[in-house]
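The instructor's notes for this session suggest beginning with a concrete chain rather than abstract definitions. Hand out the sequence below and ask the class to guess, before any prediction is shown, which regions might be ordered.
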Amino acid sequence: MNMGKNMHHNIHKQHSRKKKWNELSPMARFGTVGAGIVQLSLLVAAQTDISRRPAQQIRGSKAMWRLATLVNFIGPATYFAVGVKRRPAAKQA
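After discussion, reveal the predicted structure:
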């Protein structure tokens, strides 16, 4: 009975530890690099937009949004969805 518990514990221990880069499959490596590129691109786009956009067109302070955009994907996405004031759409005749 105790042997079964030890085996289960060892199996769980193997699955719970983080894999090293050289232990990842090529697809996992590709996905990790791809996600990193997307995240970095969003960060650069948000930081550039904050620098170029007048403060009157941003909800809240620029400093607050600069910090918020450092939070993985959520920060830049929230900045573009909520932080940027949108002009009302022009009415079509």
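Then share the key points. The mean pLDDT is 87. Residues 47-85 form one domain.
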